[in-house]
Amino acid sequence: xxxxxxxxxxxxxxxxxxxxxxxxxxxxxxxxxxxxxxxxxxxxxxxxxxxxxxxxxxxxxxxxxxxxxxxxxxxxxxxxxxxxxxxxxxxxxxxxxxxxxxxxxxxxxxxxxxxxxxxxxxxxxxxxxxxx
Length: 132
Hints:
By secondary structure, the chain is mainly alpha-helical. The protein contains five helices and no strands.
């Protein structure tokens, strides 16, 4: 007569699926804002980034146990859990996106110069080379 509900991950499968869908929608909207009305999945690099984003979210869900007590926790605990989840996703994406050129920079330059190169790269400027 009575059936036991799902245990573990299946109990919150709907939250997990909704999280993955909303993450892809936000990826799509961010791409559209930046590049215009172009399909991001037509480019192999952006398609790979979308897939890695989903995998990073799944890894964050599993290792952080994101959905434990999701129904009962308050606003502050939910904020902290969401912040941790987002931080792990961004950290994993940075590990994926970091180009091989930075490995060369870190092996061949002084740490202060590496910081200068990174800041110039973020600003979109050309780094100033030291006189030798």
